[in-house]
Here is the input.
Amino acid sequence: MTNDQKDPLFILVKSLSKSEKRQFKVYVGRLGVNTDSKFLALFNHLDKNDNMDEDLIVSKGIVKKQQLSNLKAHLYKQILVSLRLSPLHQNIRTQLREQFDFASILYHKGLYKQSLKILDKAKALAKENEEHNIAYEIVEFEKVIETQYITRSINNRADELTVEAKMLSMKNVLTSKLSNLSLQLYGLMLKSGYVRNDKEHKIVTEYFDNKLPKYEWNVLGFREKLWLYKAHLWYGFIIQDFLSCYKYSKKWVDLFYDYPKMMNQNPVFFLRGNHYLLESLFLIKDKGQLKSTLQKFEHSISESSFPSDDNIEVLKFQYIYNNKLNVHFLEGSFEEGEYLVGEILAGISEFKNKLDDHHIMVFYYKIGCLYFGMANHKKCIEYLAKIITNKSLKMREDLMCFSRVLSLVAHYEAGMDYHLETQLKETYRFLIKMNDLHEVQKEMIKFLKNLGDIFPHQIKDEFKKLHKNLKQYENHPYEKRAFLYLDILSWLESNIEGRPVADIIKEKAKGLIR
Here is the structure.
């Protein structure tokens, strides 16, 4: 039996909407000979069944076992062809590619004038939508045709095409350099994380400055500006300059409002830009802007004119719910945010074949934090355990680390300290392997390790000592990030003052930017 969750054909068939299935059957039925074809029989079987049992497919006589692999590949291709023809999946790029293909067919038939006419219209559309790569391909194709069919309608045609090609090439090279830098910085952050000291800060800054290409602002179009802002954003995240992150994510989002048609042309970039803007506002604790920006974002993507497909729906789910949770974390309104848990779990179930484990684990961590803020420590432990016991992938170390630390704190708060010693040892072993251990984490582990030797009447003094030790790192350029994952200071203050942690955070929220 095939693993259904990993079989590309099974996942593709199950991802199809009713209209897409209908479109496929219409596409297949365009020729009568296909109505009884084996690939259609296989499609109908997969559509009706909840798993891909290859033995059952063979026993039903749909296909012989040795032919099944080829039939699956053929069906997969036919579904993709059908989807490509569907109006739901048409966009400017597919239209341009289609026009380019038409022009190529006419060229090979020797119908040069007709080919040039189609290319000229396609080129204008490409430039209008800043699709410079396909525009450059069109110009190069025009140059090929001009060597065989000399047009008399335009003077200096060769010079015109040469200048056009040079300008488009320059834009494509600049876009490529900026997108390369953005991707390299993103990869650097995934590999090495945030800078931890002045030495690393200097290395990253020199890298960024040396890789940033020279440019003239007045020649930058939408795409060049987009990649420029992305590069600055990732640089800001790596050096933990969250105000810079806010500045460039805001420029990124505003760019789409300056070029509104690009919102439909590049919806994923619009969604991601808003997500980073919202995340930046959370990091700088601007509660007022976070709420208003989230509201504006939700309104924009709910418009009927905003594109919709499976990928977009998954991203909308991730970004909306992550940032709704962040609002409750800033406000300290944990109980008011509990309703989100059911909606998030329903979304995870709905998009289980499209969400990777990393994003699911981030949701579990945030749900754990939500329950911690509600003082429902057993629920908190339940969701953190999903992360700690996850063996299917190499998790981000920082997420794993804080999950373990928060789990220790939750066990202590719940009075479930009978396994605390074992957990401490496991956490130590995990932390030893980490290269990204912060002073905040070290202080927390040291404190929890000594809990067993502290008498009840001494506990408040120990909380005060730990608070004093950690307070010095609250605004430290390389240590402050630890408090974004886990508000340890508020937890300590709640224990010192004997009040719920939610009340402490709510009081602090009143002093935040509104």
User: Anything to note?
Assistant: The chain has a mean pLDDT of 85. The two ends are 57 Å apart (CA to CA). The longest helix spans residues 157-192.
